[in-house]
Design brief:
2 copies of one chain form a homodimer.
Chain A (H helix, E strand, L loop, with lengths): L1 H28 L3 E7 L5 H13 L5 E7 L5 H8 L4 E5 L8 H10 L7 E5 L16 E7 L6 H4 L1 H5 L3 E5 L11 H11 L4 E4 L8 H11 L4
Parallel strand pairs in A: 1-4, 1-5, 2-3, 2-4, 5-6, 6-7
Chain lengths: 221, 221
């Protein structure tokens, strides 16, 4: 019985991965770069997306955002839309992560042709999103310093599958007991050499280096 | 097909609820009070448990803790054990929530007889734990002010099933844009009259009122 159950799970995962590959092909066909932004609730995913939009709009980068939300509220989508970028919202209906099918359906609703950069905001969760590839070029985690320095040790799976780590809310470091060395030691164990950008979306500190990295990834059309 | 699938899901939920009832009976048989503590990663669940332990040890309250962790690390369990209270750790093996069966197995490992208060620390997640009753007397959520004031609107399900809300890290309020009125309006919509305690586990502010409420719930033996 156990063996049979494992086989079914594998089959579901493969269906997701196959659809993720289709998503990637659709994004690459229009020469866009794409990122999947994951984090705990309240780590600053939307603030990070908006800070990125505000910086790149001046550079004439055409952006689109897919917003994943577990509840049918448009708080984040409204903020992104107000920043001047087209946004498609996925309501997961209580589900705890995005999957490749949801993103595929969202891509159907977007005008992909002009896109240079697609940002996908996943559901706020450090566990479940780690198991589902969406087809984006990079998986990005926003760790937030008020969450504490032990998170890589406690939520290892999400750290293992990352291309980029953002450490947000560094403006709060003076008011917290956050041991950066201990945090980074945990990250290094799970994902050696992981590209890391400490930032504050509130003050703008550190965003320049992230934007430099991102701009180098966006294909020239 | 859809109808059949819904029936299976209902059956699983009922199995969990039935086992939750068994857990409750086991806890009540020894005249203990029990709480299920849920929160985002890093909201301060373990700090809150330890602050509660430190206050109640002097009052000769016999406590026990069940620690839910998605990874096999003993960071939180070590802290609770160091505080002088017996702890049983549940490694969920990547699972994103505790369920009644896991708690039932943990109860088998505990010396229940002397217990006055059982505290269960759920996995750090604002979505999945909301769907699984554990059999405890109260479901408690720790919301943390750095997470932002929009969380009730975005993660409504977990707020609907609460008996108590703790608002933690209020010492950070001067450094954050957190609109307490907007936050509490969201909570009130979902769970009118919800018992709420704003606290700082770091400074101890507000803990007295929580402890007063809790002590009144613990049965006299």
């Amino acid at each position: 019985m156990t063996e049979k159950r494992i086989k079914i799970v594998e089959k579901i995962m493969n269906a997701n991965d196959q659809l993720a590959t289709v998503n990637r092909q659709r994004i690459e066909a229009v020469k866009a770069y794409s990122i999947n932004i994951m984090a705990s609730p309240g780590a600053g995913k939307t603030s990070f997306i908006i800070a990125t939009i505000q910086a790149l709009l001046n550079d004439d980068v055409h952006m689109g955002v897919i917003e994943g939300d577990t509840a049918p509220v448009t708080i984040d989508s409204d903020k992104v839309s107000d920043a001047g970028v087209p946004v498609i919202q996925i309501n997961t209906g209580g589900e705890c992560h995005l999957d490749a099918l949801m993103v595929n359906n969202a891509l159907d609703q977007m005008d992909l042709e002009p896109l240079d950069l697609l940002m996908v905001e996943n559901v706020g969760n450090l566990i479940c999103p780690a198991a589902f590839q969406l087809g984006t070029h990079s998986n990005i985690l926003i760790a937030s310093v008020p969450e504490g320095d032990d998170k890589p040790y406690k939520y290892p799976n999400i750290y293992r599958g990352l291309e980029v780590l953002i450490i947000n809310k560094i403006d709060l470091l003076p008011y917290l007991d956050f041991d950066m060395e201990y945090f980074q030691k945990g990250v290094e164990m799970l994902n050696p050499g992981l590209k890391t950008f400490p930032v504050s979306c509130k003050t703008g500190e550190g965003m320049e280096k992230w934007l430099e990295w991102l701009k180098a990834k966006i294909p020239q059309k």
